[in-house]
Specification:
The protein is 84% helix and 0% strand. The protein is globular and about 75 Å long. The two termini are 41 Å apart. It has 388 residues and is mostly helical. The chain folds into two domains: 135 residues, no CATH class; 157 residues.
Length: 388
């Protein structure tokens, strides 16, 4: 009696099952999966990169500032490249123009800034002693006719928290003085920026050449283009806003005869680069230092600072910056505080662009993942129905 088809299939399947059981790896090796290996390999590379960045953070910071400086000069270099018929000549012309502007500014403002900084450094201990002893508060209260109970309450609060305020003041002073140890970067940053201005397109092409797959190259080119547009717009917008703040503070504070007007204006212009938190620190310094120096028109100075912040935040910044970042202000505050805690003043300066770059990467990756998925609105046709 010939075997049935089911018996033939059982006879065929038994050798196959025996073969697959023999080919299976031992039990310890079956615990390891290629997906797990891929995840661990990627995580190891990520942590290694983070360690290298932390170990050489000063060098990375130097090159980062050079890249940002190159982004600031790139539009002018691109505009001069066509009439001068050479990118090298355009870069040279831009640097000569920048050197002339800086030389004129040094000759005009350097004596005043030097005198004001020297006078402030000499008198600051005296101002702090007057504030700690209550003399400054007493004179201010007498001038504005404050009641005695309010004055005593404020004075008691200052005396009870004098150690904390002194510690905070020392920490802030050390944080602000830390970048002064890298003053030689002012020479290296323009030199390094020359290479980025000259070979920026080649560097971008080399980055996209890392990927071997066509879709990966398209993704990297899109990311590079988005980051290029965002950083260029952000750096130029911040520079324009900082120059506007410097000009406004210099003119108004000089007209109002505020003590240390040029120093305060320079500080406000520099802190304008730190979103949200920087202008707040500049406003406090602009009010606190003249108050310590017994400036009589603090109320008018407060009115100017408030009006300028409203004008800068709700008129100038939207027109100049536009939607280059598209980041919530609360997230900007978190990024600035976290960056300042991690890397000091430098971290606060670069934190917001770093968050914007991460947002661009996430948006591009999310867009590609959604494009790869089938549309939910399309109805799938069964194979049997299609054949019918």
């Amino acid at each position: 009696m010939p075997p049935s088809p089911t018996q033939d299939s059982q006879l065929i399947s038994k050798p196959r099952e025996q073969h697959t059981e023999d080919a299976r790896p031992p039990f310890p090796l079956r615990l390891w999966h290629w997906t797990t290996a891929r995840v661990l390999y990627t995580s190891a590379i990520f942590f290694l990169i983070c360690y290298l960045i932390r170990a050489a953070r000063e060098t990375f910071t130097l090159f980062l500032f050079a890249i940002l400086f190159a982004y600031f000069l790139a539009p002018l270099v691109n505009r001069l490249q066509k009439p001068l018929r050479s990118r090298t000549a355009a870069i040279l012309a831009v640097y000569l123009l920048l050197a002339g502007i800086l030389t004129a500014a040094v000759f005009l403002l350097a004596p005043t800034v030097s005198d004001e900084m020297h006078d402030l450094a000499v008198k600051l201990p005296e101002f702090l002693n007057r504030a700690a002893s209550g003399q400054l508060l007493q004179s201010f209260a007498q001038k504005h006719h404050w009641p005695a109970d309010r004055v005593s309450a404020i004075q008691g609060f200052l005396q009870s928290h004098s150690d904390v305020l002194t510690t905070w003041g020392g920490d802030i002073a050390r944080s602000l003085a830390r970048p002064a140890t890298h003053i030689w970067w002012l020479l290296l940053i323009p030199i390094l920026a020359i290479f980025f201005l000259k070979d920026g397109e080649k560097i971008g092409g080399n980055i996209s050449g890392i990927a071997s797959d066509r879709e990966d190259r398209i993704l990297i080119n899109g990311l590079t283009a988005d980051v290029n547009v965002m950083l260029g717009s952000y750096i130029r917008s911040q520079m324009i806003l900082a120059l506007l703040t410097l000009a406004a503070y210099s003119i108004v504070l000089s007209v109002m005869r505020v003590p240390y007007a040029i120093v305060l204006a320079s500080l406000a212009g520099f802190l304008e680069f730190i979103p949200v938190v920087g202008p707040a620190i500049a406003a406090v310094c602009t009010l606190l230092i003249p108050a310590l120096a017994s400036y009589p028109h603090i109320v008018f100075l407060l009115a100017f600072v408030a009006v300028w912040r409203l004008l800068q935040d709700y008129v100038n910044a939207p027109r100049i910056m536009g939607k280059s970042l598209e980041i919530n202000p609360l997230l900007q505050i978190f990024a600035v505080l976290a960056g300042g805690e991690i890397a000091g003043v430098v971290g606060a300066l670069v934190s917001v662009p770093a968050v914007a770059i991460l947002r661009i990467i996430w948006r591009r990756m999310h867009r590609n993942s959604t494009e790869d998925e089938p549309s939910s609105g399309q109805m799938s046709i069964p194979q049997s129905a299609a054949t019918e």
